[in-house]
Amino acid sequence: MSLDDFPYAQSSGRFASCAALQDQPLALIGVPWDGSVTNRPGARMAPQSIRAVSQSLCDATHPVFDISPLPWLGDGGNLRLPNAGGLEAARSAIQAQAAPLMQGHHCVFLGGDHAITLPLLRALTKQHGPLALLHFDAHCDTWANHFGEPSGHGTWTREAIEEGLVSAHHTVQVGLRSAAERSAREYVRDRGGLIYHARDLWGCEGPQLAPLLQTVRERIGQRPIYLSLDIDCLDPAFAPGTGTPEAGGLSMSQVLYWVEGLADLNWVGMDCVEVCPPFDHAELSSLAACTLVWAYLSGQARRLQAEA
Question: Which CATH architecture has domain 3-307?
Answer without folding.
Answer: 3-Layer(aba) Sandwich (3.40)
